[in-house]
Design goal:
The protein has 32 helices and ten strands. With 642 residues, the chain is α+β, with helices and mostly antiparallel strands. A hairpin with a 2-residue loop joins strand 7 and strand 8. Helix 8 packs antiparallel against helix 9. One of its GO terms (cellular component) is plasma membrane.
């Protein structure tokens, strides 16, 4: 085997740095990809990647098609097609868990082959959690299969996942053989069928029940010791103070002095300090006032303009120690025997409702603290707890740095949560029906207008399948039709694109070029062949699948396909067999990164709502990954002989 060139060593160093950044997320993945692109150009004498070649990724057929498909999927979603389908499934299954699971994985799997799977899963999560509560089914039993089915469905067509399009682009460059719309379908159908059968049998038995079926929001988030009720005594300094006045300032001197004295604030506060500032000045008083009850009426604490009166009951969030100090400070009577339940807050009659929302990879809250974004003061939204996998965070919430996959328990007004979702802060996963009706404009229904985006999407698929137009040209034409027919405005079309994914893919494409140009891919392929020893080509094909699947579960699938496709093709060349089967198994392996919640966006989306542990994905996904390794390897070798 020829020794490594200096250029290959430089590229491997960049790969190692990129992998480290992908795993640690010190930089967002898309910025890591852009950094790799810049480094490749700066080190052009070693990498062989000139500036113009480096930025060609932004105009590659794969990236252009991905941009267009995001918009086409948004058009279908905006017409209510997915919501309508979800509602029909709910009506047909009648609460039977097995039928519901079958309907969910079957519908999601097929839909994900043609529509971006992220919005499909986003729509199904609240449907699943709502039906789970209604019929006494643990949402944990349904949400992980939902995500896995969406991933399996992505293998059906060229547009099923972004990595399929990326692999097609690399196949055109390395083998002169891009994918057609249904190139992957013969194997994809087998993969989906086997995967669905597994999820309905073995997988169903392995999925853990992390959330009790009968649990309401307060039970699910273990809020029993973090919600309390306090009665305002006649001597309380809060009597006569309205919430609005408190927000604008003018807290009485005695309140400020009492808080400073009892809580031990380090320095004096101004006499016009707000309630928020008074509480914030004393770290031990980690308290939020949620609701005010008076004579059978309830008022939303952050929105009412009624002055507090003696006898009012305040519902507050805080741990037992903080509640006791708060009550002592402001002369409030702790109603310790009163249990605060989700029903008490849900049946309040005021506009505030309890809801769950997840932080996804594109959320504006990701990497920020609640103190930074000030949801309570800006949107009247209060975060009551944060679930991170099976860990629940109750205390010092303002200082918690939010991560992708975190699930937030919110008290929110009906008319504000839509702003948070529309502006990219969070994705609503569960709440009362009226909350989703407020977001969607009413119960899901289908009218003649829905035919336009559906016909547009089907037209794009047909044009590409019949080879009348390249997929990226057909998809761009579909974008024009989507905007021209009024399905989406131009601004909403741009907003529908996950630009971080675009930069991630475009930034990584020149890395594959550098691996090929410097001989790095051929070197690793040679090592793989040597390591395989006397293994036959079919076994080596399976080894490439497993290596790719593990890598894709640790870093992004996009990064994995760029790294592994050149290596797989070089490996095939080393042993003298066709390169396309090796490229195909890489494509299927990266689309099914089951082993961790961080490998794929939909896994992250269900991580919090299902209450899963990190290891649950390997518990259910590892046997499926091994099964699909055998099934995919054999199917690929039959459809595309070695």
């Amino acid at each position: 085997m020829a020794p490594l060139s200096t250029g290959a060593l430089v590229v491997f160093a960049l790969v190692a740095a990129a992998l480290t950044l992908f795993v640690t997320e010190w930089l967002p993945p898309d910025m890591t990809a852009v950094a790799v692109l810049v480094a490749l150009v700066v080190l052009e004498p070693y990498t062989g990647v000139p500036a113009r070649s480096a930025i060609e990724g932004f105009a590659s057929p794969a990236v252009v098609t991905i941009v267009a498909m995001y918009i086409l999927s948004a058009g279908v979603e905006s017409a209510g097609v997915v919501d309508w389908l979800a509602a029909r499934l709910a009506a047909l299954t009648g609460g039977d868990e097995r039928r519901l699971l079958t309907a969910i994985v079957g519908t999601t799997g097929v839909s994900a082959g043609f529509v971006n799977n992220t919005p499909v899963v986003a729509v199904f999560i609240p449907l699943v959690t709502g039906l789970s509560e209604r019929y006494g089914i643990s949402p944990s039993n349904l949400l992980l299969p939902l995500s896995f089915a969406a991933m399996l469905g992505g293998t059906l067509t060229l547009v099923g996942t972004a990595t399929n399009l990326l692999a097609s682009d690399l196949s055109a460059q390395l083998l002169g053989r891009p994918f057609s719309m249904f190139t992957l379908t013969p194997v994809g159908v087998v993969v989906l069928a086997v995967g669905v059968a597994y999820l309905l049998t073995v997988g169903r038995a392995l999925v853990p029940e992390r959330i009790h079926p009968a649990a309401d929001f307060t039970e699910e988030f273990d809020m029993d010791r973090h919600l309390a009720q306090l009665r305002v005594r006649e001597a309380s300094p809060l009597v006569g103070l309205t919430v609005q006045e408190a927000l604008e300032g003018g807290v009485p001197d005695e309140v400020v002095e009492a808080v400073e004295e009892v809580a031990g604030a380090g320095e004096s506060l101004p006499t016009d300090a707000t309630v928020e500032e008074v509480i914030a000045a004393s770290d031990p008083l980690d308290i939020d006032v949620l609701q005010i009850d008076r004579d059978g009426e309830s008022f939303f604490a952050t929105a009412t303009d009624r002055p507090l009166e003696a006898g009012d009951v305040l519902t507050v969030r805080g741990n037992r120690q903080a509640v006791n100090r708060f009550a002592q400070t402001l002369d409030l009577r702790d109603l310790a025997r009163e249990s605060v339940t989700a029903d008490l807050l849900a049946e309040s009659g005021h506009p505030g409702v309890l809801a769950e929302a997840v932080i996804d990879r594109e959320s504006r809250l990701r990497g920020r603290t609640l103190a930074d974004v000030q949801l309570r003061s800006r949107f009247d939204v209060t975060v009551l707890a944060v679930r991170r996998g099976d860990e629940i965070i109750h205390d010092d919430l303002a200082a918690v740095e939010l991560s992708a996959g975190d699930l937030l328990l919110l008290q929110t007004p009906l008319d504000e949560v839509g702003h948070l979702q529309d502006e990219g802060y969070l994705t609503l996963t569960e709440g009362p029906p009226e909350l989703f009706e407020a977001l969607d404009g009413g119960p899901p229904s289908l009218d003649a207008a829905a035919a336009v985006p559906l016909a547009t999407l089907l037209g794009v698929i047909a044009l590409a399948a019949l080879d009348l137009l390249p997929i990226y040209i057909a998809a761009l034409g579909g974008v024009v039709a989507t905007v021209a027919t009024g399905t989406l405005s131009a601004s909403r079309a741009y907003d529908a694109v996950s630009w971080n994914v675009v930069f991630l893919l475009a930034g990584l494409l020149p890395l594959g070029q550098a691996m090929q140009a410097t001989g790095g891919a051929a070197f690793v392929g040679g090592l793989l062949v040597d390591a395989a020893g006397v293994l036959p080509p079919l076994a080596l094909l399976a080894l490439v699948y497993l290596l790719t699947a593990v890598l894709a579960s640790v870093i992004t699938p996009a990064a994995t396909v760029v790294l592994m496709v050149p290596i797989a093709v070089a490996t095939a060349a080393e042993i003298g067999v066709a390169g396309f089967p090796f490229l195909a198994v890489v494509t299927f392996a990266v689309a099914t990164a089951f082993l961790t919640p961080i490998g794929y966006q939909t896994n992250l989306m269900v991580y919090g709502p299902g209450g899963y542990r990190f290891t649950d994905f390997a518990r259910v996904g590892a046997p499926l990954q091994l099964l699909l390794c055998v099934v995919t390897t054999l199917s690929v070798s039959v459809v595309w002989p070695l």
